[in-house]
Amino acid sequence: MKPVFSAGLLLLSACIGAAYLRSSMHWLLLVVLLVCGLAAWGRVCRRPSKAIAVLALMLCMVSVRCGTGAMPQPQPGDPSLSIPPDGKALAVRVVGRIQADGAVNNGRCRSLLAVSSLNGHFSEGRTELTLDSCTTPLLTGAWIELQGEMRRPQAGSHPLLAGADERLALQRTWSRVRTDAIQVLRQDRTPLADARRKIAQRLIAVAGEQQGGLLAALVLGGAQVPLPQSLRDVFRMAGLSHALAASGFHLSVLLGSTLACTRAWPGGLRLAAGSGAMALFLALAGAQPSVVRAVLMGAAALLIRESGHRSRPLGVLLLTLVVMLLLHPTWARSIGFQLSAAATAGLVISAGPMEQWIAQHLPRPLHRLAPALSIPIAALFWTLPLQLLHFGAAPLYAVLSNLLAAPLLAPLTLAAMALALMVLLLPAALASALLPLLIWPVQQLSWLLISLVHWISQWPWAQLLTGPVHPLLVLAFSLGLLLWLLPSSQNLRCLSLPLLLLVVGLQARVQFRDDLIRVEQWGRQWLLLRHRGRAAMLSSHGDELSCRIATRLSHGLGHQRLDWVAVLDPVGTDQQACWNALARTLQEEQRGRLPLSAGQRLQSDGLSVGVPKYHGRLLDVRFGSRVERLRRSDLQPQSGSVPRV
Asked: Per-residue confidence at 217, pLDDT binned at 50, 70, 90?
């Protein structure tokens, strides 16, 4: 089967590579790599020229399909085509249908809207609706009419501040409409959305926002549940984000329990029960990439198992990924798809050999820990390059946190699924009477898991911040890991450590250089000074959004905490905690006086900002041996200059 595996790997590489190409030079590089791979495949696997020609044709078709479909373009009739080319807002009257529930967030609701009428004319496409002064959530299936302003989504002003344009384009949406009021015309029946909403609302109402939200996420996935952002953050820092995202773990718990309960049934009934469990999981969690991948692989494994044959997980994985990308090329750019595919590949390829290696090196009484350790280690190593590429961060205690959380996650997931079925199937009165009694022990387990995650997230350096890593360094880092992890590369393992050390050294050189980074977005400005791995910041505004973006910039650039922050704007009491968590020293405007007067300076070792004694309108910014002189008015906020976001 090695030729089939190699061919599948080439097809998958063609899919993902073509999805990221943006220039003729990129296409030329991809063609060269695929031709070299095709030649190596034909020579090593000793395939006839006819087979090579067939695979070459398949590679061409796959590349064209994924390359043209990864970033879709507006079709005739799309609302975005009515927006003026100069980018000015278009006054519109829109009739459309809500595509997904829009939860209330800071008095505002946001959701995708399928447009059927634009200014009285037929339209076909989607737009992102933002409803200001929103008090009740927008519900899926609601037909609404509104008057507002339509614009094109803006691109991000910095790579760490992802723009709405690419995010919405991947959802086949190229416009945004904003309004203060809507008129609901009618409400369609939406059984699936109603079921998801009912499960989440009942569990949260009985068990609380955090415990109930966690239980709902174990059934529906975090994308379908309004979880507190703080809970998502601590799970990410502990390396347990996969517990909140519907994935293969949740399906394996459900499918394994179903097959165990139907062990004595005939083969046909077992197959029907397993298929029903997977269909229910797909319906409740939604067609997210990780869910679709898990269901397709589970269905293939179930069919092969019930037919009496032995499955080859790597072949099933490659076939599943290629089929998914051919049907939905935009998934190639989905971080969730990439992480799910990499983690599964790590479990299929490396978990077994790693378990044997750990068992050989652990003392005999600890041999039983080998399976529990090998799974998170394999998943972590295979997803680590993607985490560095997309987030510039990695959880330092992920293996230990997964080992400690494993005894809680499986029973919690199974119990949450049982409670969800009870909410859906039992009469409302009976479910209301039984749910508080049955959920109490499960609620205690969820509290224990959340407490464990909070505890781990507070450990020193719980999240290792590396800053943005260049794709070529990520590629070299991946190669170094593969040389160590793949059993077939034992003769080349001596190259792994030098290659990894080289990547670490080059990244450290980037992080320790002196730099001045200026970011402007939504009428706000941030100035980040960097020197020998430390940083400080100037911010034009002190509101909550400015602090959130400042934190994102700081962490995204690899700085856990800044030396100091100077805010040229009063900081409200509610935002003090956010700014104090970001920096050791906070200097803000107070009672109309700016943070610094003429002759004053705010500084730490190698980083400073000051006002020249005789030039009160200027700022001297020092980072290392370099000095920049800026006008204070360029950073000082102007009254009424901040647009609505």
From this structure: very high
